[in-house]
Each structure stands twice: as C-alpha cells, then as structure tokens.
C-alpha cells in the first residue's frame, strides 16, 4: 500500500489474536502498522508483533526492492511494535536504531543489548534528514508508555503518531472508526488524558495532512474530526448526552431495577440509555460508555459487606483511568444490611468533579412500592 510517493505501508493484519494486550476482545482482529520512507536514506517506522516476523520482513523486502534501510525508527517499545527489532538488526546489519534514551533502556531489557555501536538517541526537537524528507521527533511521554516519540515528516506533512489515533480491528475489515478507536483509547490510553492534551498542543503547531498510527487505518481526510474526538476524550469531556446504567445482579432483582430505570428514562425522553450487565458484557465496552456519556448509574447487590465483584472491577477500571466530570447515581440491593451505596461512594471519592444524584435507590431483596418510587424519582432527577 502506498501512503505517498515515498511512504509505503508494510504492516500486517492479525486475525489469530484472542485478546489484545492480554485483555481486550478484538472481534475484527488487529493491525500492526509499519511504514517505510524511501529517500536518499531509508527509514523504517517500527516493527510488528512477534507472530508476524516473516510476513513483515517479506513486506519490508518487497517495499525496499533490493535497497537497504539506513534506520529503524522505534517510536514505542511495547512488543506489539518492537518484537522484531532483533530480527531487523540481523537482517540489515548496517542499519541503525533511532529512538529515545528510555527506549534504548527498554531495548536492552527486552533483547539483552541496546546495540551501542548502532544507536542514534533522539529527543524532543531533534531532526533527521533522509534527503527530501526532514523528520522531526516529538516526545510523547506516557502516551501511553514513557519512551514514546512521534515523528513528523515535513515533506509529506505526515504525522507518525505511534499508538495515538489507533483503533482495534484489522485493516481488511470495514467498521466504524470512532467506536473501536474510543474503546481502544479509553481502555489503553484513557488514564493519560493530560499527556495526550500536551501532545495535541504540540501537534496543533504542525501542518498535518496524513496521520499514520501504529494500529488502524491511515487517516487522510477530515482530520479535524479525529483531532476533535481526541481532544474530547483526553479532556474527559462528555461526548454524547445520555445515561449509562451498569449493573450486576445475582438473582435478577437488581437487574429488574436497572431495566425499570432504563424504561422510565426512555419514557421521559432520555436521548440515549446504554445498559450493561457487568458480569456478561465486554467490560471494556461498558468502561468506554461510562467515559462517553454524561451520566452513570451503578447498581449492585451488597456482597460480603462490599459490592459485587464485577462492580468492584468496573469501578476500579473507571478510577484508574481518572474518571471525572460526570453525574453519578447509585442503586443498592441487600437482604439484611445493604451497604453497596456507601462502598461505591467511597470507591469514587478520589474522582474529580463528580456530582452525585440526590436520590439513592435502596432495594431490600426485591422491588417494592418504595424502591419503585425511588427509581422513578431518580429517573426524573437524571432527566
Ligand atoms: Fe500498540 Fe502501546 O502498543
């Protein structure tokens, strides 16, 4: 695939993967992108996952048409991109690695050597001329690892954005960008909104016509749309008006409460209600929804004097990603000593700018007139 006259795609699609990064369901697989810039000097942008060494080396050889690369630019050391550094260095013994100092530390950790005679350490603001293509390096620490650099090619106005602007899904499957890019961003990068904001500010000074991420499609049109979504996600702003109801239920009574709340909200004209059974849904989708919409209702039985385990995991997923700037409402169930509301409030107490609804719903075993009235009052309050 040709990105520009001089930039070729040499990445691979992975349809064998079960869980990306050991946890994310990827029904449409995953792409590990890699690129070659062909100029007087030749640079390769990152490698791919270990399982695709042969395919990647073949793609690379084909794009090179007998030429020899001068540089391997390592923007990110997570193994889905860095696994084939040693294979590359063996295949092309005259090439050098271009990476940040922190990346070289990790190269030594992963490969037992940091190639002392073949390294070029770069930092923010450094440049590398390939001929026509002048590359400049922009530090992107903690987006989402500390060693990350992104690379701007002033000649073709291309930003090589590392994991930024990536998404789940292989490139040979057509699917909506935002849905899987959001789940990817919130899941993997979501904690680091402040660092992404810093990177977006640096990017705004560049004339970017193409974004080449390490996952997902190459972005060439309507870049303001993608940049705008990244700004929304990284500033923890509400993307879509609506209510997320995340529940866990042992015998179905808390589920009935969650469903009654959803029906009541819809009847009152709520623009969107997203409901998830945390024991059965893809947790990453529920987490994504919590960050997408403005209001969140958590409904859990009391369990061992705590909340139900899936709710504990869900709330932890929110708090570790700096969940903030939202309205939260709480529903608890219990047959002798309901304490889930108190526990959930405590778990969320470190979150910035949360507004708790005035109405909490208390269910004693099963819905009754009192708890139904509380659910209706909560729906009105949320609307
Ligand atoms: Fe795609 Fe952070 O690795």
Description:
By secondary structure, the chain is α/β, with parallel strands linked by helices. The protein contains twelve helices and 22 strands. The strands form five sheets. Strands 16, 17, 18, 19, 20, 21 and 22 form a seven-stranded mixed sheet that branches. The chain has a six-stranded mixed sheet with strand order 1-6-7-8-9-10. A five-stranded mixed sheet has the order 11-12-13-14-15. The longest helix has 15 residues. The protein is elongated. It binds MU-OXO-diiron. The site of MU-OXO-diiron has 8 residues, from helix 2.
| Proportion of residues in helical segments | 25-40%
Please state the structural category: alpha/beta
End-to-end Cα distance, whole Å, is: 49 Å
Tally of contiguous helical segments = 12
Proportion of beta-strand residues: 15-25%
**Low-confidence runs of at least 5 consecutive residues:** none
The molecules bound to the chains, other than polymers, are:
MU-OXO-diiron
- Biggest sheet overview: 7 strands, mixed
Keywords:
383 residues; elongated; binds MU-OXO-diiron; 34% helix; alpha/beta; six-stranded mixed β-sheet
Summarize the topology.
Blueprint: E1 7-9, E2 12-14, E3 19-20, E4 24-25, E5 30-32, E6 35-38, E7 42-45, H1 53-64, E8 71-73, H2 79-82, H3 85-91, E9 96-99, H4 101-111, E10 119-121, E11 127-129, E12 134-139, E13 149-153, E14 158-160, H5 177-189, H6 193-204, E15 210-212, H7 223-234, E16 240-247, H8 253-267, E17 273-277, H9 283-292, E18 293-303, E19 306-307, H10 309-319, E20 327-334, H11 340-348, E21 355-356, E22 361-364, H12 369-382
The structure holds MU-OXO-diiron (FEO).
